[in-house]
Amino acid sequence: MAMEAGVVGAVMVVGFFILVKNVLNEIWLKPRRIRSMLLRQGITGPKPSSIFSGNLQELQNIQSSADKNYHSSYSHTGLPSVSSIFPYLHQWAKQYGSIYMYSTANKQHLYVAKPDVIKALNLNKSMDLGRPKYLSTTTQPLLGNGVVRANGPHWAHQRKIIAPEFFLHKAKHMLGLMEESTMELIKAWDSQVKEQGGVADLSVDKDLKSVSADIISRACFGSSYSQGKQIFSKIDLLIGAIAKPSMLFGFSNFRFLPTKSNKEIWNLQKQIETLILEIVNARREERQRSTMSEKDLLEAILESAANSEQLKNARNADRFIIDNCKNIYFAGQETTALSASWTLMLLSLHPTWQDRIRAEIVAICGDNLHDCLLDLDKLHQFKTLNMVIQESLRLYGPAVMAVREAFVDTKLADLTIPKGTNIWILLTALHRDPENWGPDADEFKPERFARGISEACKYPQSYMPFGMGSRLCLGQSFAMLELKLLLSLILSNFSFSPSPEYRHSPVYRMLLVPEHGINLLVRKVKKEE
Q: Is 268 exposed, middle or buried (0-12, 13-18, 19+ CB in 10 A)?
């Protein structure tokens, strides 16, 4: 007995020292190594106030000061900058330059806006760079371990399944259903304009969100928005519960505690997964009854799960299917709807560009708009519309930042990025950098894209509204087709001007969203005889 007690005691002592060693490594040794390696390469930044909080106190002070000074100003001639989003990153960039380091607790971050490093990141195809693990913990209820959140071989496997479903030759066959969904919106707006005496004050962002949700539901899952309405509603609630500033600082280790907030997140997660599983099981029953006439994304995911050796277990297969469905529902609805909403807001301030788009549509399509918009070659001819979309994505692209974690020491340009470093690229800053875009960087000037992205700015690799490197948005082609068709139909039928109800306040909630919505005055376009 004494010997057994001695063995147990020895094991406990060893376990204690291992625990102490791991804790010491995480809160001191690992951060010290990262900072030392970066310092030796000439990279500086704000000095951490302590090993436990890093730069959190300074960060929060800058944010609080910015919140007090920020006024949601709006005028018909211009809009305030988006520097109110993460003001500490902007302030530190002024102090320390285009590349600097800072820390939040034991997390070490590298802010990057240096063109050669950005270019190297874009060219890097290695799986040694991926989504930061600590951020993935926070977004797990929303995204599971689907393609948006996964890393390594698991990410590569999922990308191989999903990416082909959004290739251009497949996306073009979805133009018909895109048009059908958009025409429902146009009928609804037409009715509201008539009811309100020729001018309707509409929340365009909410309506565009419904259209985008309907399109992604039908294109990827064969179901209409009415069937997925509950899913989208609960995803919105889950985003609101998750998207707190603390998620960026690494405070995700307490997700297991049964707090009121965590209980809400768990409940919404369960409800969303139950609703998705209902759609999945309905499709499984349909597959048993008959042969599917068309193969959509859900069908591809189901086939992959059925053929995968790793997913023979039914529970694992369901997890794989649900996680990727959640990713598509989130990414497919939110980003396109926001892009279209911000574009209409900018066009409401610049009516001459509305006129130029309409003139282009008439010149290309004539009186046959329906057939024209279903022709991929015709859509590619919409140069003016494409310029406007590119400029809108530059100024108010849904993606606010690109973040990578170095899983091994990684060489980028002339820098060696230490293992464990979280690399931050603030897209809103890159896309408005006067050094790259010129002194008019904050202005809406679509003509800058007249000769393409390569001629629009000094460093084209720093324009990345759809992400960067191997993790470029899988639905980029689909999204651009949807935006072109959606905006073409809308602008052919309606004109837009600023609403007195609109309050310009872009905020970060995982994406760049209008805090108070986007209200615009909508009028019917008079057709020329």
A: buried
Calpha distance 479→166 (Å, rounded): 9
The whole-chain average pLDDT of the chain stands at 86
**CA pair distance 361, 371, nearest whole angstrom:** 12
Residue by residue, DSSP assigns 23-45 as HHIIIIIHHHHHHHHHHHTT---
Say how far apart CA 63 and CA 507 lie, in whole Å.
13
- Distance, CA of 421 to CA of 406 (rounded, Å): 6
Q: Say which DSSP state 418 is in.
A: P
pLDDT digits (tens, 9 = 90+) for 213-230: 888 888 778 776 666 778
- Cβ(238)–Cβ(268) below 8 Å: yes
Q: Whole-angstrom Cα distance, residue 393 to residue 437?
A: 14
In angstroms, the CA 507 to CA 511 distance is 8
What secondary structure letter does DSSP report for 53?
A: T
The DSSP H or E segment spanning 411 is strand 410-412
Helix axes 351-365, 476-493, angle to 10 degrees: 100
Nearest alpha carbon to residue 280 among 328, 331, 332: 328
What are residue 423's phi and psi, to 5 degrees?
Answer: -95, 125
For residues 455 and 447, the answer to whether their CB atoms sit within 8 Å is no
What is the rounded CA–CA span in Å between residue 343 and residue 519? 13
Which tokens in the block code for residue 447?
């003509």
Strand 129-130 relative to strand 99-104, pairing? unpaired
Q: 74 pLDDT band (50/70/90 cuts)? A: very low
CB 341 within 8 A of CB 392: no
What's the rounded mean pLDDT across residues 486-510?
94
CA distance 259 to 321: 29
146 CB-near residues (< 8 Å, 6+ apart): 158, 323, 324, 325, 326, 327
Beta carbons of 161 and 311 less than 8 angstroms apart: no
Rounded Cα–Cα distance for residues 298 and 420 (Å): 35
Tokens of 257: 């505690």
Name the one residue in this structure whose structure tokens are 């146009």: 186
Q: SS3 sequence, 305-316? A: HHHCHHHCCHHH
Token code pair at residue 509: 């909630």
The residue-averaged pLDDT of 143-155 equals 87
Q: What is the DSSP letter of 202?
A: E
* Percentage of the residues of the chain whose pLDDT score is greater than 90: 47
Which segments of 99-167 does DSSP mark as H helices, in order? 115-123, 133-143, 152-162
CA distance 118 to 116: 5
pLDDT reading at 514 higher than 90: yes
Q: Which residues, at least 6 apart from 38, have a Cβ–Cβ distance to it below 8 Å?
A: 101, 110, 418, 421
pLDDT tens digit sequence for 161-209: 888 877 777 777 788 889 999 999 999 999 999 999 999 999 999 999 9
Q: How many CB atoms lie within 10 A of CB 120?
A: 20
